[in-house]
Amino acid sequence: MDMRIGHGFDVHRFKKGNLLRLCGLDIEFDKELDGHSDADVALHALTDALLGALGKGDIGRWFPPSDERWKGADSSIFLKFANEKMYQEGYSISNIDLTIICEQPKINQYSEKMKKWLKKILKLDLDTINIKATTTESLGFTGRKEGIAVLCTVLLVKL
Ligand code: MG
């Protein structure tokens, strides 16, 4: 069986705000993530995992932060681009495993909605998508509630 594995990692810092864009959802929160695009750290990690599996570099290569076109951009654009590249290369997603690392907000209450959003965008079965959440036990920048980190692994199979 022809399979490819990819992993992605991303971090964005918090800034003052009231709507947190995370894994496609707009979550009411007292902070938002800072970044050139909409700073959806989960979609960035997933996009990087897909590009990695395909051997196509990383999100910054295709969507450089120096490019004004991506200022405030909806990160689903990046994800859809990587997903399209995957189909062009003749692969499909076997499964996604994504871990969101933060103290707040508590992710578990949103993880089903996030899965459903990814299912819709990527046209996958729900049971191929897993979203986990963890903290770093108050240690480090996520422990100090300064931002969110996301790890993502994807497995691709040849169509
Ligand atoms: Mg990013």
Q: Brief description of this entry?
A:
This protein has helices spanning 41-54, 59-62, 76-88, 111-122, 140-143, and strands spanning 3-16, 19-22, 25-28, 31-33, 91-101, 129-134, 147-158.
Question: Averaged pLDDT, please?
Answer: 97
Number of helices: 5
- Biggest sheet, open or closed, and with what strands and sense? 5 strands, mixed
CA-CA gap between termini:
10 Å
Hetero groups: magnesium ion
Instruction: Tell me the strand order in the biggest sheet.
Output: 4-1-7-5-6
Q: What is the CATH C level class, in words? A: Alpha Beta
Helix content, binned percent: 25-40%
Q: Going by CATH, what is the homologous superfamily?
A: 2-C-methyl-D-erythritol 2,4-cyclodiphosphate synthase
Based on CA atoms alone, the radius of gyration comes out at: 15 Å
Which range does the strand content fall in?
25-35%
Count of discrete domains: 1
Question: What can you tell me about this protein's structure?
Answer:
Helices cover 30% and strands 34% of the residues. The chain has 159 residues and is of the alpha+beta class. It has one domain (3-158): 2-C-methyl-D-erythritol 2,4-cyclodiphosphate synthase (60s Ribosomal Protein L30, Chain: A, 2-Layer Sandwich), CATH 3.30.1330.50. The protein is globular. The structure holds magnesium ion.
Question: Which descriptors apply to this entry?
Answer:
159 residues; alpha+beta; 60s Ribosomal Protein L30, Chain: A; 5-stranded mixed beta sheet; two-stranded antiparallel sheet; 30% helix; binds magnesium ion
